[in-house]
Amino acid sequence: GAVVSQHPSRVICKSGTSVKIECRSLDFQATTMFWYRQFPKQSLMLMATSNEGSKATYEQGVEKDKFLINHASLTLSTLTVTSAHPEDSSFYICSARSTSRGEQYFGPGTRLTVT
Amino acid sequence: QKEVEQDPGPLSVPEGAIVSLNCTYSNSAFQYFMWYRQYSRKGPELLMYTYSSGNKEDGRFTAQVDKSSKYISLFIRDSQPSDSATYLCAMSRVNTDKLIFGTGTRLQVFP
């Protein structure tokens, strides 16, 4: 149990375009989902906390107009990187917290490359 | 001072060794403690989740929490090459809060 999926696993896009990444909890409900960014050989950097049915809470320094988060249901959250630039290239990982038990489970990550 | 300190390693051990991974923290409000394993280019995998002082065992893994010393450990018995990964400790004040991560320890188990 406790599987979180992400789609796509890899995406290459041109500078100026927008990219949407989906995060789904497959076998449990998640009131809260989190979006992280990870650079090579570094730990996870929390970008935002997403609560079902309400606006996301962004960490300091993260542009909310650039990284749009929508948490439309208890099993789906999306991150849209708008007007992507090469510096947005990174590994994006979501996690979902089990509503019933409290543990956080991570998705497999999405590697974004902006050319 | 970081809220959570973790030795980045790398830690290199022979197959079959007992591995000890550690984190210290400064905020006594942390009550929930987790260990994750992350393979290269993959998302972290939850190994252990605990919220009380003492030991918790799951197969070859034992998580230890000492709240009085603000110190947590993960022990891996009979380590295998497949255990080679980065191990991240994480903690939160309440189980509904965001996680605070250590920097991760890279472990290499050689045959």
Structure description:
- The complex is a heterodimer of chains A (115) and B (111).
- With 115 residues, chain A is mainly beta.
- Helix content of chain A is 0%, strand content 53%.
- In chain A, strands 2, 4, 5, 6, 9, 10 and 11 form a seven-stranded mixed β-sheet that branches. In chain A, strands 1-3-8-7 form a four-stranded antiparallel β-sheet, with no helix packed on it.
- In chain A, a hairpin with a 2-residue loop joins β7 and β8.
- Chain B is mostly beta strands and 111 residues long.
- Chain B is 0% helix and 54% strand.
- Chain B has strands spanning 4-6, 11-14, 19-25, 32-38, 45-50, 54-58, 61-66, 71-76, 85-92, 100-101, 105-110.
- In chain B, strands 2, 4, 5, 9, 10 and 11 form a six-stranded mixed β-sheet that branches. A five-stranded antiparallel β-sheet of chain B has the order 1-3-8-7-6, with no helix packed on it.
- Chain B is globular and about 40 Å long.
- Chain B starts with a strand and ends with a strand.
- The model of chain B has no long low-confidence stretch (mean pLDDT 93).
How are the SSEs ordered, and which strands pair?
The complex is a heterodimer of chains A (115) and B (111).
Chain A: E1 4-7, E2 10-13, E3 19-25, E4 32-38, E5 44-51, E6 57-58, E7 67-73, E8 76-81, E9 90-97, E10 104-106, E11 110-114
Chain B: E1 4-6, E2 11-14, E3 19-25, E4 32-38, E5 45-50, E6 54-58, E7 61-66, E8 71-76, E9 85-92, E10 100-101, E11 105-110
Parallel strand pairs in B: 2-11
Antiparallel strand pairs in B: 1-3, 3-8, 4-5, 4-9, 6-7, 7-8, 9-10, 9-11
